[in-house]
Every structure is written in structure tokens, then in C-alpha cells.
Specification:
about 300 residues; alpha+beta; eight-stranded mixed sheet; two-stranded antiparallel sheet; 5 helices
């Protein structure tokens, strides 16, 4: 009588069933898993083919297309070569670069205008001069710009009665004509004061001396503390102060920066600063002497500036 095969489950006389060996179980499960995976893949591809949006729209680096036999991978098309960089600036009308006259324009920066940053101020003044129809001279190079230069940037929140910028015109307009055209185009708080002619090739330099007024806005008790702090500072010979800069913390003696510190009968402080060695924002200096005071309580106004 022939024995039953090892991989089949033949019933014995006693009613028992012969179990397959361990290796046979693993092979059976692997074959079943492969068959199930194949059926799932076929259903997935069949469903994907019915989607109106192509599969290629979901792939960034290659395009998948359904074919009759398999999925074909295609490389994206080559991008056109970039044009070579220009080695020389484009030619502009030579008349735009003519420097006929240069003026230093003095103006105020008060009320709401005190909160305009330097970059915003530059953009606003360029628009005002375009509306005024001033024949501005332009720089050369890849990005021609109107020839406007500024002095030291005024800290945001600080008012001034003595700000300036310089302009170069390609036509010799008089100072009176420039004032007549530009004054009505200025923003509120930016009032023209005067124009003075300076050499055409004059370079903008920062002032070496400035005068400020400082008022404290707060309760009477805080105002007394404010005056006492400044009196103590006036009486001292040195005050070391550390401030954060782009290059890290810097420590300096700020007392030599003050040439004059005086009070008037209304409790307003008048300060004359010396910037010949270094410059520190007047708001930063005021906060260094009264660090407990809030910035909105310190009303600073620039009154004048002097060049070296």
C-alpha cells in the first residue's frame, strides 16, 4: 500500500489529520500574500485609469503614463538654457546723467511723519519729486536711480525741525522754482524750510553736532524722578553703557557725548550732543539715563545740526 504524500492532509483510520511541516506553511502563506498583492495592484491600476486627472500631475520629477503593458517612466523635458549675463550696463539717454545743479533741501519731520522710517521716507520723497515734475539727474549702471542723498537717519518716533536731503537736477532750476513745485507735494508733517545750493559733486556727510529738546510726559511723581536722574547724570563725569549692535554688545562711556545739558523754566531739557567720535541714537541715550521710562513718554525734537 502506498503512503500518502507529505504535503496533503489525508484522514487516517483514527480520524486524525496529518499537519504540514513548518517550511510548507511559510511557503503557502508567501504564495497567498503574493497573490493578494497582485490582485490589489490590479484593482489600484484599474481605479487609477478611471480618474479624470492624469497620474502624471501628482509626480514632480517624472511622468507616469498608463500603457497597455506596464507603467512607463519618462524624464521631464530639458529647460532652455539661461541667457548669458550682461557684461556691460544698458545704455541710457546721456541727457539723464547731466548734473546741472545740486540743492540741499531742509525740511521738518513732525507729528505723524516722525513714525516714517528712512526707507519709507526715501520712497515718498521720490514720488513727491515726480509729481512736482522736477528734472532729476540719474545715476549710471545697471539700475539707474535718481540722485538723492540723505543725512544721518533719524530714529523712528523722534521729531525734527532740521532734517535735510540733497538732490541733483539735470536742468538749472532756481531754488525758488524748486520750492514752488515741491512744497505742495510734500506729506503732512514734512514741511519745506529752505534750499541751499551746494557743489554738484559734494558728498553727503553726517553732522558732528546736534541740538535736541527733551520733554517727559507722565505723572508729577515720575517727572520729578526724571529730572533727578538727569541732574545726577549731569553731575557725574562718566557713565558706562552697554548696547546691542549688529556686531554684538558694545560698551562705551556716554557722558562725553553731551556738551550741554540745560533746563528751561517749563521743565524742558535742552541737549547739545557731540558726534565727532561716535554716534548713538538720542532715544537710546535717553533710555540709558532713565531706563524705567517708556519710549512714548520721552518726546525728543531735533532743533539744529552742524557740519564739521
Amino acid at each position: 500500500m502506498t503512503a500518502p504524500p507529505q504535503n496533503s492532509q489525508q484522514p487516517l483510520a483514527s480520524g486524525m489529520v496529518v499537519a504540514p511541516q513548518k517550511g510548507q506553511v511559510t511557503a503557502a502563506f508567501g504564495a497567498a500574500a503574493a497573490a493578494a498583492s497582485s490582485r490589489t495592484c490590479c484593482r489600484t491600476l484599474s481605479s487609477a485609469s478611471r480618474i479624470s486627472r492624469p497620474i502624471s500631475s501628482y509626480c514632480r520629477y517624472s511622468t507616469l503614463e498608463r500603457t497597455s503593458s506596464a507603467l512607463e517612466v519618462r524624464e521631464p523635458p530639458l529647460m532652455p538654457p539661461k541667457p548669458p549675463k550682461a557684461t556691460e550696463p544698458p545704455a541710457i539717454n546721456s541727457a539723464l546723467g547731466v548734473k546741472a545743479v545740486r540743492y540741499r533741501v531742509w525740511h521738518t519731520k513732525e507729528a505723524e511723519a516722525a513714525y516714517i522710517s528712512q526707507l519709507e521716507l526715501q520712497s515718498l520723497l521720490e514720488r513727491a519729486m515726480r509729481r512736482a515734475g522736477l528734472p532729476m539727474a540719474f545715476s549710471q549702471g545697471f539700475h539707474p536711480l535718481p540722485l538723492i542723498s540723505f543725512g544721518r537717519a533719524l530714529p523712528v518716533g523722534v521729531e525734527s525741525q532740521a532734517e535735510w536731503f540733497s538732490i541733483v537736477l539735470r536742468e538749472p532750476l532756481s531754488a525758488e522754482e524748486v520750492m514752488k513745485r515741491l512744497a505742495p507735494r510734500m506729506l503732512r508733517g514734512l514741511r519745506l524750510d529752505r534750499l541751499e545750493e551746494i557743489p554738484v559733486n559734494d558728498k553727503s556727510v553726517g553732522s558732528v553736532q546736534e541740538t535736541f529738546s527733551l520733554r517727559f510726559v507722565g505723572s508729577d511723581a515720575d517727572r520729578r524722578l526724571f529730572m533727578e536722574a538727569w541732574d545726577d547724570f549731569t553731575a557725574t563725569d562718566s557713565l558706562m553703557f552697554t548696547r546691542e549692535t549688529k556686531k554684538g554688545p558694545r560698551t562705551a562711556d556716554i557722558r562725553p557725548l553731551f556738551q550741554v545739558i540745560e533746563w528751561d523754566e517749563h521743565g524742558t531739557l535742552y541737549i547739545v550732543t557731540d558726534w565727532s567720535e561716535t554716534y548713538i541714537s538720542p532715544m537710546t541715550l535717553a533710555r540709558a539715563i532713565t531706563p524705567w521710562a517708556e519710549q512714548h513718554q520721552l518726546k525728543i525734537m531735533k532743533l539744529s545740526q552742524m557740519f564739521g
